[in-house]
Design goal:
The protein has about 325 residues and is an alpha/beta fold. The chain folds into two domains: about 240 residues, Spore Coat Polysaccharide Biosynthesis Protein SpsA, Chain A (Alpha-Beta Complex); about 60 residues. The chain is built from ten helices and nine strands. It starts with a strand and ends with a strand.
Length: about 325
Amino acid sequence: MTTAPLQAGPRVAAILPCYRSGAHVLGVIAAIGPEVAFIVCVDDACPDKVGDLIEAGTQDPRVVVLRHAVNQGVGGAVCTGYAHALALGADILVKIDSDGQMDPAEIPGLINPITRGDADYTKGNRFYNIEDLQGMPMVRLIGNAGLSFLTKLSSGYWSVFDPTNGYTAVQARVIERVPLDKLARRYFFESDLLFRLGTLRARVVDVPMTAIYADELSQMQVGKIVLPFLASNITNFLKRLFYSYVLRNFSVASLYFLGGVPLTLFGVIRGVQAWTMSVADGKAATSGQVMLAALPILVGVQMMLSFVAYDVESEPRSAIWPLLWRRRPAVAEE
C-alpha cells in the first residue's frame, strides 16, 4: 500500500468513458499532461475490449481501467469514473472523451476557474469562436442551438451554451452533493447534470474550446434523441419551477408565473371560442368579446416575461465549493 502524495495544487482526475474508441484512446491518454494525477478509464462493456487495449498499450502509472459488465451509456460510465475518482481523493474531476475530439492540452484552461474559486463546474463551449464552427457538421450546429435553449429553460443557466459538450470539470465537493444514481445514464447526462447543479445553486462557467472532427464514429443518432431530449428538458423545467419557486422560495417571480400562465391560457381559449362562434354565426365578434380574450393574453404574457427576467437575474454568480467543507486527505492506493 502506498499513499498518493500531497500536491501544492488540486489533485485532478481525468475520467475517460471508453466505447469503441480503440483507434484514439491511447493517443488521448499520452497527451494528458502532468497536471492530472489520476486517469480513470471506464470500459463501458465495449465489444472491442478497449479496456484490454489500454492496459496493454500504456505504462502510465496514473491509469486505472474500470469495466462495466453491461453497457450503461456515457452517463453511466462517467458516474462510475466520478465515484472512483472521489475514492482516490481527487479534488477536481475532468470528463474528457476518449475518441480524440477533445484536446487534453485544454485541461489547464478548463480547471483554472475552479482552482481560482470562480466556478464549481466548467464546460467547453465550441460556439465561442466563430471561426471554429467551420469544422462542425451542420446537423450538430443546428441541433446544439435548439438543445441549448431547452437546457437554459430546464437548468436556469441562461449564460451557458453548448449543453451537450462533454468536455467538463467539476469540483469534488460539489459532485459529492449530486445524487449520481439519479442522473441520466445516456446522452442526456450533461443536460441532466446541469439541472442537478442548478438545484445546488452551483456556479457554471463556459470555457471556449475547439472541437476536433476527424474519422471518429459518433454513437449519437440525432433522430432518436430529439423527442427524449425534449421530454426530459420539459420534465426538468417543471421540477426546477417547483423546487426554486414554490418549495424553497415563494417570491414575486412565483406570482408572475402562477398568474401569467393561467391568464394567457384563458385568453387564448376564450379567443378561439369567440372566433369559432363568429365563424359559425357569420357575425363579427363584439369589442367586449375581443377584450375578454386580448386583455388576459396581454397581462399574462407580460407577467411571464417578468418571470423570465427575474429567472435570468437569479442565475448563480458565485462558487459554492469553498463554503462546503475542508479538503479531504489523500487516500491509500494499491
